[in-house]
Design goal:
2 domains; 8 helices; alpha/beta; 44% helix; binds iron/sulfur cluster; 5 strands
Length: 212
């Protein structure tokens, strides 16, 4: 429940010195894509402790949710594309691909207007078949909108459908992250300025080490 989450958050701040928190919903089938429960959770947490929060969800049916999320105490928002080439999205994640990239772009624009440049991000998994050019080309559009493209190397996990899919090579990652680091820096949306979430944490990608 939101109240239990708030207790956990309070203890994490007091006992472990936690500095920010991620709330994620997976892929709920509801039209709001989990926005309501994210709002309730953030509201309860902020009432208990002053902790920057990132919410993560798919684009909800109505962009009004972004104002509600902000008002509930959510500081940053992640809406994750994961894969950027439409045909690959259909193949690897048919459920998620039912929300087209054009809807993500619309939602990103509306979300940046509420949360601010650099406080909206998207997680892109490199190594699943997108070319470096495809990732960099959509990243250009994202940075122009004020969205931080958090590009992460795919890591195969045993017991999952993609367990046999290889991880990308270090050379491939560098060919993406080096130009991307320069791009986000020039766009003024560096990892260090993000209030909460994956881009700030950075544990899953070395992108921030390429920022200048
Ligand atoms: S970057 Fe990775 S470890 Fe850090 S919050 Fe995001 S998913 Fe978790």
């Amino acid at each position: 429940t939101p109240e239990q989450l708030a207790e956990v958050a309070r203890a994490a701040v007091l006992l472990d010195g936690v500095k920010h928190m991620v709330l994620t919903t997976g892929t709920p089938p509801t039209k709001d894509r989990g926005a309501q429960i994210l709002c309730e959770s953030a509201f309860a947490i902020k009432a208990a402790v002053d902790l920057p929060i990132q919410a993560q969800c798919e684009p909800p049916d109505d962009d009004k949710w972004f104002e509600r999320m902000r008002a509930s105490g959510i500081d940053t928002l992640g809406m994750h594309l994961e894969v950027v080439t439409p045909a690959l999205r259909e193949q690897i994640m048919p459920g998620k691909a039912s929300v087209p990239i054009s809807r993500y772009m619309e939602a990103f624009r509306a979300a940046v207007a509420v949360f601010g440049r650099g406080q909206v991000s998207t997680y892109i998994l490199a190594g699943l078949g997108d070319t470096a050019e495809a990732i960099l080309s959509i990243s250009r559009e994202l940075v122009d909108l004020g969205v931080y493209p958090f590009v992460v190397p795919f890591v195969p996990i045993s017991g999952t459908p993609l367990e046999d899919h290889p991880a990308p090579s270090p050379e491939f990652m560098k060919s993406v992250l080096q130009p991307l680091g320069a791009m986000v820096s020039a766009g003024g949306i560096r990892s260090a300025d993000i209030k909460a979430g994956c881009g700030k944490c950075g544990a899953c990608s070395s992108l921030s080490s390429y920022e200048v």
